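Q: You know discrete backbone vocabularies at least as well as I do. I have my own habits and do not want them to colour yours. No explanation is needed for now; the record alone will do.
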Amino acid sequence: MPTRVPISDELRSVFGSPTRAVLLDSSPRSRVWRVELSGGSRVIVKQIADGGGTGSDGDARYAREVAALRLAARATRPAVAPALLATDPAARVMVLEHLDDLGAADDWMPGYAESLARLHALTGPADTGTLPAWPGPTAADAESFLALATALDVAVPPHVPDELAGLLDRLDPASHHALLHGDPCPGNDLRTAAGVRFVDFEQASLGNGLVELAYLRIGFPTCWCAMSATAAPLAEAEAVYRATWRALTGRDVPGDLADACAGWLIRGDALVERAHRETVDHLARVPAEDFTWGYVSARERLVHRLGVVAGLTREHDRLHALGQLSAALAVRLLERWPALRPLPTHRTRPWS
């Protein structure tokens, strides 16, 4: 893999020549450099690579990130993303504003939630088509979840299939146009002096912002570092998100957080890193093997999600039976594998 910073002659004519370039840690899907320029300023140079999924998807991820950064640039005072300074489409290169990251604070969630709401509120129906629609769970995901219950000898309440069908309808992104980051994980949120800014928009889409607010409860489902938020900070962060959205849009957040969490629960692809998604039925693997992503196993992720959905749906009119099934599945998993650990409550740096 080449490590020389890919600044073309055209970009050099704009920014000057690099005097020093440091290759930073990044996911396998990109290469990122911190570059010092001859005038003394710093920029970030990011090059999108192929990989991280089936087929050659580098061009699509590059186009998606560029489009998302341009939409995110609508936010000012403070911004919610680094400024996109220049592009080199032929090389899939972006030159980005350098941000001084202050590091995560112990009380990081309110600032995260506020910036997430500000990001989500930037777009509306007029932006349809600028990014793909959020890819929600499918009928195949619902069938796989029901098959998992059967494989674990847990009875499926009669109303669950109908509840899952209704869930899929409600999660259809067609009527929602929030600017979704796509992977708003610890490490993709930088705490700056002006507030939290998000980076790495390769999976950005348009949809319902609740599917990303749900990350705090459901355990960061697209992230290497699955984690659990405790009750009081979680409630505060969700309140900050809703208040920020209301202040910016003049209306309440649409949709149901329980639906968003249930949608992540039934997706087997949310148990594995991106390179392994859309390959096999990962929920079907759970009874036979406990595969690990980062420091957390698939069964541990699943037990956490089952508990979240069970708790959110005890009094839920449209997901009550799914909640009962979730509670029973969590009990069965812990009976069979009592050494399963709760998710950690601290942040670690992810590569999803």
In short: The chain has a mean pLDDT of 93. The first helix runs from residue 9 to 15. The radius of gyration is 21 Å.
